[in-house]
Amino acid sequence: MPGKTPAVRAQTNPCPGPCALLPWGKQAGRSGRYLYTTNRKHMKSRNLILAGSTLALVALWVYAAVSKLQEFELFREQLLRQPFPAWLAGWLVWLVPLAELAATGLLLFRRTRGWGLIFSVGLLALFTGYVGLALAGVWEQVPCACGGIIGRLGWQGHFWFNLFFTLLAAGGLVVWKQKRRRASGGDAASGEAAYRSGGR
Hints:
Radius of gyration: 27 Å
Distance between the termini: 34 Å
Shape: elongated
Low-confidence stretches: 8-14, 18-22, 187-200
Largest sheet: none
Number of strands: 0
Helix content: over 70%
């Protein structure tokens, strides 16, 4: 009827809770809920990948270092048979297990986990490259200087074993960088840009 102001329907937030904090949460409704749920799933997947790769690398480094130290004389003798100068082998017999234990220590703590992943990728890449050169026949057949079960794999098995863990460490490093970028606001900035370009 003339003279009467039509009742204004109260607007409710279609995406209550944490979703409302997103730039598109209050305006996109179902789209906001979907994006929030998808974000949560991706976060859980990244956390599982990072935790799995970290645990696997810690187990690898601890086993490799302890087995070398337990069979120290055998490890030293095998290193002396490698195509290294004798003085270098004398250093490596201590440096290799210490480097493996250092990688373990870095991986165990959240603040140094990124450095542990970088260090692990570097070590594994070096080991894989050395085994690859041995398989290519660059040197004469030399005994593997690894301890425990790993030393019984043979050069080809050792190569694929190292390559698997190199890729695992690299994958963990990628996930760690994504989580760090997200924590520093990278994801929020990209979400806001997407909202401005097509979310209105």
